[in-house]
Every structure is written in C-alpha cells, then in structure tokens.
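User: I've been going back and forth on whether these two constructs are worth ordering. Before I decide, could you fold them both?

Assistant: Sure. I'll take them in the order you sent them. The first construct and its structure tokens:
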Amino acid sequence: MARSRLTPERESELYTAVLDLLREVGYDALTMDAVAARTHSSKATLYRQWGSKPELVARALRANKPASLSEIDTGSLRGDIEEMLAHTDDCQMDKDAALMRGLAHAVHTNPELHRALRELLIEPEMNGLDEVLQRAVRRGEVAADNPALKLVPHMLIGAFIARPLIEDQPVDRAFLSAYFDAVVLPSLGV
C-alpha cells in the first residue's frame, strides 16, 4: 500500500485518537469519519495511509506496544521476565486489556480485523515470546521437549481474561509477577 509521508508525531496523534475512540465507542461503532473528524484529517488521507479500518486499528494497537520481547536478553529466563515486567505500565496494561476485551467480539465477526490483528499484533508478540523461551532452551534452563513451552501464550492470555472475571481486579505487574512465579516458571521447570 502506498503510504504518504506523515511525521512520527502526526502518526502518533492519529493512533492515539483511534485508541481513544475505540475505548469510547468500541470497534463496531468506530468509523473512519469519526477518526477523520477527531484528527482534523480527511477520510481519503486515512484510507491512503492505512487502506482500511482494521489495518488502522491494528497499527494503532501495535504502535502502542513497547519494544519487541525478542530484544530482551538478560541471560536468564527469570531475568527476561523481570525485565519484561519492568517495562509494563499498570495503567496502560489496564487500558490495553479493556481494548482487547472490546475487540474480542469484533474479531469473531470481522475476518479482516482478525487477519490484521494476527499479522500486526499477535504474531510479532508470539514470535518475541517464542524467542525468549527458545533462548532459555538453548541455555539449558528449560527442556526442549517440555510441553508447557507451547502453552505459555495460552497461560498468559488466560491470566488476562481470568483475573478480571474471578477477582474483579485488573491485571497489573504484581499479579503478573506472582503468576509467572507460581504458574509459568514452574510449568517450564524453572
């Protein structure tokens, strides 16, 4: 897709507006007209830049993420996890979780959104997590045939879904740290 030249600042403004609108009205009610009005831009510019609403939403969510997990390498799996958690912001994590809950239904009814989120958000995150885990295998911290290796993403997603449902509490660093120590690391034999 041909992308025009937007400054990083302008792109950031657009992404912030998209995320704000998502929180306010949800995915289904979010329109390119609303994004254009909020950002004082034209729909033509938005379509030229991103091609579609699902692409714009996925890129806005991706831009909101910190650096790739694969860039974290402290020399131990426990250290890598502690470093990942050190770069999380409780308030932002709660906002992100609310966004993802809001998108969960839309993903099931919109294949284009599902594809865009998988391609731009989910797969890069899973690839980064897999690299962190494979480094732990290469260092001998985790057995290569440990069946839990394939289930770590499922465990993490479960934590993000279950805590608000069971405890009516948001997922925060303290909870994730305890969850890694009690569930994820022991299942990996660490």
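The second construct, handled the same way:
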Amino acid sequence: MYKDISPLELAIQFHGHICPGLLMGVRAAELAMEQLNLKRDQDEDVVAIVETDSCGVDALQSILGCTFGKGNLIFRDYGKTVYTIIDRSSNRALRIAQMKRASMGAAGQRYRELKERNDLNQNEQAELEQVRQELFQYITTCPYEELFAWNEVETELPPRASIHKTLTCGKCGEGVMEPRAIKTVEGILCQPCFDLAR
C-alpha cells in the first residue's frame, strides 16, 4: 500500500500541507530508518517516544507507522523537538534532537519574520514564498548533522499495547477503560465526571 509513495508524500497526505516542521520530521524519520535499518512498522515493533506535539510528529506517524491506536506512539509533553525511536526486534534505540533553529540560516530567519506578520504586502508575500522554497530546499537536502544531534541510547522498552475491559461511568453513562476508571462510593466514574464531582 505504501511502497510507491515517498516518505515526503506520505507525510504531506497525512498532515494536510507542507511546512518546515513537517519536513524536519520527515528527515528525522529517514535518519531513524537509516541508522536503525527500519522499515515502516505494521504492528508494534517500532516505537516512537516524542517530546513535542508539533508538526514533525505527523511525519513520524505516517512514515514510521507509529500511532496512538497501536500503542507505539508515546507522547511526553516536554516541549522539546526530540524523538526516541526504538526497534523492538534489535533492542536498539536512537534519540534524535533537533538543533536550534538558527542552523537554518538566513532563509529560516526571514521565513519566521514574515510568517509571524499578518500585514504582508504583495511583494512580501512573494518574498515569503521564495524564502519558503529556499528553506524547504535546505531542510530536504542538507546533511543530517546540520539539523540534528543523535545517538544510540539505552531505554526501557515500553510495554506492548493492552486491551482492557470497558466499564460504564455511573454519571455520564459513557464507556471508560478499566485502568482509567475511578472507583468511588457513588460507583465507577470516568476522569471528567470525577473531576466535576470534586
């Protein structure tokens, strides 16, 4: 199904548009695949631990096949563009950290300046498109070393995804997985109903 689609096209289709953050994620996914000798995951053999919820994560999901639904995409809300990619079959893990934005040169700086403004005139719109193309070209062609720092790390393998029994919340009547259900004197509650009851 994915054999004839490039990693970049997969990411764009999944994310909905192309942007610098998505391209950085594409390069990070390609780096992980190269360093760990990976193919797109079909089950849960590849795990991605991501420390941001930015655009690049969509590239990892689409290219590496790591998703919340399969339990092999783990989000840690640290606000850092850092990805740890784990190959269960080889027990190897690669931690990839995006370098500071300044490494993207003048095109990156000008892109950010123009992108933050809402009052661009026609010439500035054209300039924005030009620097966007320069930035895209830079991200997709420069050596990995200019974009990331990476190293193999020791990491504890996360457990494989589990299927849990569904209980019914005594207040809203919606299903809640058993490990997330809260047992109270009033009965079983989901987290939102428990929070409202406090």
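Notes on the second construct follow. The longest strand covers residues 92-98. Residues 41 and 94 are 16 Å apart (CA to CA).
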